[in-house]
Amino acid sequence: MLTKRVAVTVHASDPLSRAGLISHFQHQPTIEVVPERTADEADPPCGTPSVAVMLADRIDEPATTELRRVLRGGDQRVVLVAGELREPDLLTVVEYGVRAILWRHQATEQRLVNAVHSAARGDGELPPDLISRLLNQVGRLQRATSTASTGTAPLFGMAPREVDVLRLLAEGLDTRQISEKLAYSERTVKNILHALMTRLHLANRAHAVAYALREGYI
What we know:
The chain is of the alpha/beta class. Helix content is 50%, strand content 13%. It has nine helices and five strands.
């Protein structure tokens, strides 16, 4: 369980939207809304989780530019609150390293807090309908790629138990459900995913599923 306070920066294109997001966090004892650091300011204390919450009605050029700017801030974990997200945009933000995505109309105070805590722990979170759309898109990309494939093996392999975990993750199961299905502890499931994402330089769980689909593992 996350016990440290999470430092949260809030990003939105207009002041009213930003104020609305901030209001959801003001009375949360485990969240502290902080100003965005400038280049000459010191890094936060070691071990202090830092999460950026970004609101974007759509992923257009200004939103993409802002997202890249936020992610350039180092080990920044981003929660995206989106009004609209097309399938190509979905894959783009996942590959950029967005940790969690919430629909704007579903972004209640509790869901926002849960998403921030998930991102701070290094976990990911997507609405079920977005997981389905992501898998559909990656499946199409996989089929297109396989048509022109040279038959070479992927640079990095996956162990059978990593594939088993990702297959269940792709079906929408959470950590507890995966551990029950595979008779692993929840810690073991988390360790498998962490080791896989570290080895393959994957941003989050959704990115791991996308990679496994694209390379033909699942």
